[in-house]
Specification:
There is one protein chain. A 3-stranded antiparallel beta sheet has the order 1-3-2. It has 2 domains: about 60 residues, Arc Repressor Mutant, subunit A (Orthogonal Bundle); about 60 residues. The protein is mainly alpha-helical.
Length: about 140
């Protein structure tokens, strides 16, 4: 059911916080990131630079240079990281079954059966549109 894409590397809580800053802002310097992080925790400039370097090594962010300042931006969308996290949950707790995951979400009232039907209808519409010849689009 799922394509086998190369899994994204995992991130720790502080790396995740940095990713959220970049997703929200689009781009940010190390100092921008530090100022946002400092609203909730004390962090050193060297810690922020290490986090950014790690995220770049993992392929999750990239940077451009503006003068002498590195401007960082995400290379991976938040929803792609979320999808991978869900895939990990499915594999650990639901034997890889999306159906078991969705049934558990319904049982736990995280999603309603009506919302699932609505999503199924959207998927069906998208599949029909994708099957139409390109000339008719």
């Amino acid at each position: 059911m799922f394509g086998k894409k190369k899994p994204l590397p995992s991130v720790g809580p502080l790396e995740n916080a940095v990713m959220h800053i970049l997703w929200e802002r689009g781009t940010a310097s190390a100092d921008d990131v530090r100022l946002v992080l400092e609203q909730s925790r004390k962090v050193k400039e060297s810690t922020v630079r290490t986090l950014l370097r790690r995220l770049e090594t993992k392929g999750l962010i990239t940077h451009d240079v503006d003068g002498r300042t590195f401007i960082y931006r995400p290379r991976v969308a938040a929803r792609n990281m979320a999808a991978q996290a869900v895939r990990g949950i499915m594999e650990r707790f639901c034997a890889g079954s999306v159906e078991a995951l969705l049934a558990g979400m319904v049982d736990s009232e995280l999603i309603t059966p009506a919302k699932l039907r609505e999503l199924a209808e959207k998927i069906s519409r998208a599949e029909r549109e994708a099957e139409q010849p390109k000339a008719k689009r």
